[in-house]
Structures are given as C-alpha cells and as structure tokens.
C-alpha cells in the first residue's frame, strides 16, 4: 500500500493575513459564527464573503489534488460501492416484500394490541375504582358498626372503631365529600359518647350512694359476727385454761377467714366506673374524669355527713355510720382495683374530712344524751365501725379517742341509773331473811354471787341469812360491771381492768355504801332492820370478791391474779367500816330499847324499907328482849358480829346500872335497893353465861365472856354490899376486887348511900353490931375518898 502524500498548503499570490486566519479556524473546526456576527454587526459582510470564497477555492484545489493523488484507490472504492449498491437494492427489495407481508400480518395484531391496551386501561380504571369503592364501603361499614355500638352502649368498641377509621381509612378515602363528613362527625360522636358515659356514671354515683348504707351495714354485721365468735372463743379458752386444758389451737384457726369472707360477701359493681375511666382515657381526658369523680364523691360525702336534728340521734346513728362505712369501703375497693385512678392522698383527705365531722357529731350527741343505754348502743356501733374500717387501712384513732373522752359521762349516767335501782332495792327491802324454796333460786340468788356459807347444798326450804336486797344489789352491780366492760372494751386501751376496778370501787363506795349509811342513819330503823342491814353488809362485803373476779373474767384477766389479799377492792374496807357502823346502829337501837325496859329511876324503889325477895319485874322483860335479839342475831349475823352485839348489850346494862347510881335523879339509896339491884344483876349474869356457852362463843372468845363486861356493875354492887367497904382504899384488895371502879364515881355513889334513923341500919343499930360496923366502915370510906379526892 502506497504511503499517503503529505498535505500541502497552497498559498496563492495575493492572500491576506485575514484569509489565513479564517482558513485556520475552518481547518481546526472552530466556530466562525462570531466572525460572521462581527462582520454583519460592523456592516461589512462583503469582505467576509470574499474571504470565504477564497477559502472555498482553496479547499476545492486541495480536494482536486487529493483525488488526483488517490485516483486508483478511489476507482476501486467506487466499484466496490457499486457492488454494495446492488446488494443494497436486493436487500431493500427483500425488506420491502417482508415489510409488506409483515404489514399484512401485523395490522390485524396491531388492532388487537390497541384493543388489548384499551382493555388494560379500562381494567386498571375499574380496579382502581373497585379499590376506592372498597375503601369507601369499608369506611362506611365501620361507620355503621360504630353507630351500632353506640346504640347498644358499647362505647369502648365504638371508640376503637373510630380510631381505626381515623388511622387506617380516613386518609385513603378518595371521596372528599365522604371524607369531610366523616371528619366532621367523629368529634361529635366522641362528645356524644362522653356525655352518654358521664350520664351512666352519674347514675352509678346515685346507685353506689344508695347502696353504701347496705354495704356498710353488711360489713359492720360481719365485724359484729366475727367479734361475737372471738368472744365465744376467748370464753372457751378461758374456761379451758381454768381447767388446765389448752385452747390455743382453736384460737389459731378461727379468725383467719374474715378478710376473704368479707371480700366475698361485699359484692358491688364498679364496672361503670372502670368503663367510664377507660373511655375517658381513650378520649385522652383521664385527668378531667378523675377530677370529676373526686369532686362528686366529695360532695356526696359532705351530704352523707349531715345529720337530721329532727330525728333523735339514737334512731339514726346506725344509718349514718353505716353510710360512712360503705362510702369508704367503696373508696378502698376503687383505690385497690382501679390502678392510678384515685390517689391515696385524695382518699386520705376525704377520710380526714369524715373523721373530724364524725368526732364532732359524736362529742355533741354524747353531751346531749341522758341514757347510758343509748350512749352504749352508739359506742358499740362506733367501735364496730372503727374495727371494720381499720381492716381497710383507715386510721380510726380519733374516733376511739372521742369514745374514751365520753367514758366518764357514760359511767356517771350508768352510776345514776344504778343508784336509783339500788335505792329502790334497799328501800323496798322487807329486812326479812330470804326464803328460798328451789335449787334454781338458790343458784340464782346465792351461788351466782358466791354468798353461800357452806359448800354443801342445803335442804329446801332454805332460809338465807340475808334479805332479798343482797342478791338484788348484786345483780345491779353485776349489770353495772357488764355495762362498764361493754363500754371500755374495743376502745383505746386494750388493758382496761384497772379503769374498770376504779369504777367498780366508785359504785360500791359512792353509791351502795352511801345508800346503806343513809339507811343506817335513819332514826326510824328498828332492831331487826339494823341487824339485817349489818348481816347484809357482811354478805355484800363477801360479794365484793365475786365482783372483782367477775370483772377480771370479763376483762380476760386470770382469776388467780385477783384472788390475792392485796388485790382486793378498796370498797371492801369501806364496807367493813359501814358494817361496823351498822353494828353501832344496831347497838344503839338495842341499848335504846334496853333503856326503855329498864328505866331504873322509875322501876326501882331506891329507899325501900323491905328486903327484896327477888329481881324486879322489868329485868324479865330485859332478858326476854335480849334473848330475842341474841337468837335472831345468831341466825343472821356472823359470830364476830354476834359477839359484838352481845358484848355491847351486856356492857350497856352494866354502864346503865353504874350511871343510874351516879344520876342526879337519884339523891339517895339504901342497902335494900342495892340488894334488889344485886338480884337483877345476877339474872343478867346468868343470862350472859348461858348465851355465851349456848352460842358457841366460848370456843372462839375464851378470855372475854359476856359476864366479864358486867364486871364494873358487879364490883360496884359487891362494894356497896360489902361489910367492910373501906377495904376499897386498900391497894391490894382494890386491885383484886375493885380494879374497874373509879375513885370519883365511888365517892359520888357512896355519898348517896344513906340510911335514915328509921331505916334498916338505924332500927337495928342497937341490936346488930355487924350492921353498925358496916355503917362505920362506909363512913370511913366516904371520909377517906373525900381526903383522896
């Protein structure tokens, strides 16, 4: 292959520099547009056209030179090109025939393709329409379902359905009209649901308030039943302990069922509350509903805490307290089951409001009450309320404190009521020994209060040493103890035995003892009454130990802890003092009666001229009276009291004899009068010895017989009857025979011992030296006594 000749640049004569520049630009393929634009802008396109023609001529010359150079190659290429043209014509002919056939075949297919494309377009539109229709239908179906839920009251499902419409369908609904309608109706429906739910909730509020009383009564009733079972169990345990048998197993298993039992019995429906709160939560306004609930329940509470003053509190307290109990039981169930719906602080605020109002009402009503029974009824129900609500975690201390503050008021009322009963029992007493005909009566009136004098069952008919007043008063005191225990139990202090003991002493000392002392101080009291009162006091003193044991038993205190002597009641000592006062009253009555019988200044002739042949008549009445008194006393009074009565009466007779000799009404007496008094004294001495031994007192009081209390009168009569009365001044003889006589008394009495000239001593003075010697001895005694004094 021949080498290509180098390009030659032919430059003709006359070429300018501008032609060269233009030729270079064209040769390099640069854009000559700016030159053309510039030429026309300058208004000189002719030079440029001339230059372009020059360049064109030059290019033609170059092409001609090039063709000349490659002539042979060009010929070959033209030949080859002619062959290609022939082939191209053939191919073109084939393509034309094929294209014709293809056109014939493809025209039908093209028609079908167009139809198919049209069908596809229709299908796409239909599919889109169906899809849009389905969305609308589904949205409308959900709307219908929502309406159905609303009409059926299934607001939760309605709200969930609306939420589904909002989240999944509202943006996809293609129809703007439908979409706009749904968007507008959703808030309206939510508002409607909220109002409807609030309406149902308000109905529930009314219902739960009306049910609170029944809820509270049921809960308090369960507490009362549990308390009764506990008391019965403790009583059985106490008896078992007294019999040295264990009862702890029963204690361990009885009280564990109460909480679950109470929850199972106290059934009330909180579903409307849960539903309303849940729906408000879905609506996004739970706080508003919580506030609404709290405000309305607080208003209900304030209304429940108002009491009617037109109706006595004792008739309405159960309803009032049961309503409050039911209210807070409901609140406890709400706070335990409704999650964070109700705050503990809110319930605490409501409880503080209620507790302050209840305390104020109780204090006010207790201050107005004048019946211990009414006060006790209210107190019992309040303690049941406290026990019930304490199980639900409420602090009931202020209520129990209010009850404790009214403790003295209750006992004052109870004490006054018992005082009236005791006064009635004592004033209506016949002061006759109680006749018991049946064993049941013996158990009720004697054994029940530990008044028996023997552990052996007596034969019936049985005559008790006390009157009917004793068991009557014991029953009153026992009921007082029961009433006191009923009030003190389940209060602030669980160990209230010391308080009960104080109140027990109070009724025995301030009431029973005072009434007895008033009866004793009554001037119209007789011997039998005084004796029976003294006997009754002895048995009441004995019953005080029973009262203390009974109080301990009711308080759950072991009886052995109060059976020690140092544990006895202070009232026992006071009753013993009153018993002594009754003995003194009895002795005063007996002595007064003895003075009426004796009347020595009237019944004795102190200057008689006749020697007495026996005792005076009055002394027989005295002995008969003493016999009656001592016999009755022996049946009624204990031995120490019998001894005191006998000693007091005998000593009074002795003192009366001596006092009569000292009396100013007795100006003088003679030996015959002394002899007569001596006969009387011997009768009394014989009676004293006989009663002292027959009553068995000689085995108890061996060194203090009844006769020993007549010693002053006996020594005085012996002195006045002595042949040598001046021996009284002999210290040895006086200590042996006249140690009880007082010098002054003897001097006064001896001054009255005078015989007249015609008296017994005077008439026999010349015939009987002994009598003369006795007179001289008496005169000597009188003289020496004057000198001694």
Automatic annotation (TrEMBL):
Cellular-component GO terms for this entry: cytosol; exocyst; membrane
InterPro entries in UniProt: EXOC6/Sec15, EXOC6/Sec15_C, EXOC6/Sec15_C_dom1, EXOC6_Sec15_N, EXOC6PINT-1/Sec15/Tip20_C_dom2
Exocyst complex subunit EXOC6/Sec15 C-terminal domain segment(s): 400-752
UniProt entry keywords in alphabetical sequence: Coiled coil, Cytoplasm, Exocytosis, Transport
Residue ranges constituting the Exocyst complex component EXOC6/Sec15 N-terminal domain according to the UniProt record: 51-220
Keyword Membrane: no
Domain of life: Eukaryota
Cell compartments where the protein resides: Cytoplasm, Cytosol
UniProt-listed GO biological process terms: acceptance of pollen; Golgi to plasma membrane transport; intracellular protein transport; pollen germination; pollen tube growth; vesicle tethering involved in exocytosis
Family per similarity comment: Belongs to the SEC15 family.
Protein function: Component of the exocyst complex involved in the docking of exocytic vesicles with fusion sites on the plasma membrane during regulated or polarized secretion. Involved in polarized cell growth and organ morphogenesis. During cytokinesis, involved in cell plate initiation, cell plate maturation and formation of new primary cell wall.
Name this protein carries in UniProt: Exocyst complex component
Organism expressing this protein natively: Arabidopsis lyrata subsp. lyrata
């Amino acid at each position: 292959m021949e080498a290509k000749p180098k390009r030659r640049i032919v430059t003709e004569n006359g070429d300018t520099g501008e032609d060269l520049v233009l030729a270079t630009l064209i040769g390099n393929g640069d854009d000559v547009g700016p030159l053309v634009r510039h030429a026309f802008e300058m208004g000189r396109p002719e030079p440029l056209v001339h230059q372009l023609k020059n360049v064109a001529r030059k290019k033609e010359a170059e092409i001609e030179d090039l063709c000349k150079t490659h002539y042979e190659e060009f010929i070959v290429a033209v030949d080859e090109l002619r062959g290609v043209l022939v082939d191209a014509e053939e191919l073109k002919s084939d393509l034309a025939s094929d294209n014709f056939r293809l056109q014939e075949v493809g025209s039908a297919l093209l028609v079908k393709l167009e139809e198919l494309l049209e069908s596809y377009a229709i299908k796409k539109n239909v599919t889109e329409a169906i899809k849009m229709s389905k969305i609308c239908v589904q949205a409308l179906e959900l709307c219908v379902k929502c309406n159905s839920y609303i009409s059926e009251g299934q607001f939760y499902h309605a709200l969930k359905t609306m939420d589904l419409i909002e989240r999944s369908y509202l943006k996809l609904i293609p129809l703007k009209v439908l979409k706009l309608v749904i968007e507008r109706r959703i808030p309206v429906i939510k508002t409607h649901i909220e109002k409807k739910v609030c309406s149902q909730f308000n109905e529930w509020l009314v219902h739960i308030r009306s049910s609170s009383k029944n809820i509270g009564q049921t809960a308090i009733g369960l507490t009362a039943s549990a308390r009764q079972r506990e008391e019965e169990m403790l009583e059985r345990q106490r008896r078992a302990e007294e019999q040295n048998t264990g009862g702890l197993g029963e204690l361990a298993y009885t009280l564990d069922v109460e909480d679950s039992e109470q929850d199972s019995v106290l059934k009330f429906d909180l579903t409307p509350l849960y539903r309303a709160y849940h729906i408000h939560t879905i609506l996004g306004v739970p706080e508003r509903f919580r506030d609404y609930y709290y405000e309305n329940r607080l208003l209900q509470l304030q209304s429940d805490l108002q009491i009617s003053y037109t109706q006595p509190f004792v008739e309405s307290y159960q309803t009032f307290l049961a309503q409050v109990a039911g209210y807070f039981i409901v609140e406890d169930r709400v706070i335990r089951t409704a999650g964070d719906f109700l705050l503990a602080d809110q319930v605490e605020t409501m409880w503080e409001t209620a507790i302050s109002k209840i305390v104020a009402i109780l204090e006010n009503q207790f201050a107005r009450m004048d019946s211990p029974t009414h006060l006790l009824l209210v107190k019992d129900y309040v303690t049941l309320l406290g026990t019930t609500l304490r199980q639900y975690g409420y602090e009931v201390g202020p209520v129990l404190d209010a009850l404790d503050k009214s403790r003295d008021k209750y006992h004052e009322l109870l004490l006054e009521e018992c005082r009236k009963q005791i006064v009635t029992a004592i004033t209506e007493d016949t002061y006759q020994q109680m006749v018991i005909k049946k064993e049941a009566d013996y158990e009720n009136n004697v054994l029940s209060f530990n008044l028996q004098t023997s552990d052996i069952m007596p034969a019936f008919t049985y005559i008790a040493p006390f009157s009917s007043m004793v068991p009557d008063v014991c029953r009153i005191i026992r009921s007082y103890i029961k009433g006191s225990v009923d009030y003190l139990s389940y209060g602030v202090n669980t160990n209230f035995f010391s308080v009960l003991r104080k109140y027990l002493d109070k009724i025995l000392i301030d009431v029973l003892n005072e009434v007895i002392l008033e009866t004793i101080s009554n001037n119209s009291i007789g011997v039998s009454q005084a004796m029976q009162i003294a006997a009754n006091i002895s048995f009441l003193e004995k019953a005080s130990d029973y009262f203390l044991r009974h109080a301990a038993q009711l308080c759950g205190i072991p009886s052995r802890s109060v059976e020690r002597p140092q544990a006895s009641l202070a009232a026992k000592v006071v009753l013993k003092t009153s018993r002594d006062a009754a003995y003194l009253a009895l002795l005063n009555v007996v002595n007064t009666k003895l003075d009426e019988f004796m009347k020595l200044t009237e019944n004795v002739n102190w200057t008689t001229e006749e020697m007495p042949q026996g005792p005076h008549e009055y002394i027989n009445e005295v002995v008969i009276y003493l016999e009656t008194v001592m016999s009755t006393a022996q049946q009624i009074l204990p031995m120490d009291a019998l001894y005191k009565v006998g000693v007091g009466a005998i000593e009074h007779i002795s003192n009366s004899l001596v006092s009569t000799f000292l009396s100013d009404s007795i100006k003088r007496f003679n030996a015959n009068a002394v002899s007569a008094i001596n006969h009387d004294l011997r009768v009394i001495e014989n009676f004293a010895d006989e009663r002292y031994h027959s009553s068995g007192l000689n085995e108890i009081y061996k060194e203090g017989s009844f006769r020993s209390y007549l010693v002053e009168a006996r020594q005085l009569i012996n002195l006045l009857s002595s042949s040598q009365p001046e021996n009284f001044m002999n210290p040895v003889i006086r200590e042996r025979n006249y140690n009880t006589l007082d010098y002054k008394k003897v001097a006064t009495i001896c001054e009255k011992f005078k015989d007249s000239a015609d008296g017994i001593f005077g008439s026999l003075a010349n015939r009987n030296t002994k009598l003369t010697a006795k007179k001289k001895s008496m005169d000597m005694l009188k003289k020496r006594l004057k000198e001694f004094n």
